[in-house]
Amino acid sequence: MFTIGINDDVTNLSLTNSRVLDLIPADTFQAKFWGFGSDGTVGANKAAIKIIGDHTDKYVQAAFEYDSKKSGGLTISHLRFGDSPITSEYMTATLDFVACHNMTYVRK
């Protein structure tokens, strides 16, 4: 018995994972947007992914993270679209596009 991807400091039977596995089809575009609560980033991303899904033959997926603050908190939008079905149940990791809509986040 062994584990991969976590450091098992109890049994010491861990195998190191030397690379990140990307199971997303190669034709899938992945983007992540960092926004500031109430700045319009989430709304714009919801509208954009809906337009792509409604008016192209692309498959789409979107997930959104919100800070507990209603306005002024961190928001993160994860968008995927491509020619193949998207069945990923996790947030974006290997990105084709990154946007940061608040310079404060760049400096952290």
TrEMBL record:
Coiled coil: none
Record-linked SUPFAM superfamilies: Pyruvate-ferredoxin oxidoreductase, PFOR, domain III
Location of the Pyruvate/ketoisovalerate oxidoreductase catalytic domain: 37-106
Keywords: Oxidoreductase, Pyruvate
Gene Ontology process terms (BP): response to oxidative stress
Keyword rRNA-binding attached: no
One example GO MF annotation: oxidoreductase activity, acting on the aldehyde or oxo group of donors
Family matches, as PANTHER family: PYRUVATE-FLAVODOXIN OXIDOREDUCTASE-RELATED
Protein name as catalogued: Pyruvate-flavodoxin oxidoreductase
Organism of derivation: Lactococcus lactis subsp. lactis (Streptococcus lactis)
Taxonomic lineage: Bacteria, Bacillati, Bacillota, Bacilli, Lactobacillales
